[in-house]
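Sharing a chain and its predicted structure for anyone who wants a worked example. Both blocks are below, sequence first, C-alpha cells second.
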Amino acid sequence: MEAALQEHAPGAGPRARLGAVSFLHRFGSALNPNVHFHCCVLDGLFDAAPASDGQVRFPEAVGLSAQAVAAVQAQVRRRVLRWFVRSGGLAEEVRQEMQRWAHGGGLSIDAAVRIEGWDRDGLERLLRYCARPPFALERLEAT
C-alpha cells in the first residue's frame, strides 16, 4: 500500500510514510464468526524529511485508479496467504487454490469512501463505525 501511494504522491521523498489505523472485528452483524479488518488509510504520505521551514509535508496521492487498488489487493492477498502457510494455519495446496479464486479470493479492499480533511464530523462517523462493538446495547432486548 505504501509503495502504491509513493507512486501517486508527487513530491514525496523516499522516506515518506503512510498513516493508517486498523480495527479488528471478529463478528458479523448477526454475531456470526466473521474475522475482518476495517482500515482507515490516509490518501497521502507524511514526508519524513522536513521541509525547509521545519514542517513535515503531506503530499496527497493523486490519480489512484481502480487498477492501482486492485494491485494492492492482490499483493495483500499473496502476503496474507503466505503468512497463514508459514504460521501453520493453512496448507500450501489450499493457499495455491485460494490464490486462483476470483473476485479477490476472500480479501477485498474498498477505496470508495473518502473523507475530506476539513470534514471532522464525517471522520468521526467513519471512525465510530469502524470502532463499534460487535453489538449495541440499544439492539439488545429481553425475550
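Comments welcome. Helices lie at 2-8, 66-86, 92-99, 120-130.
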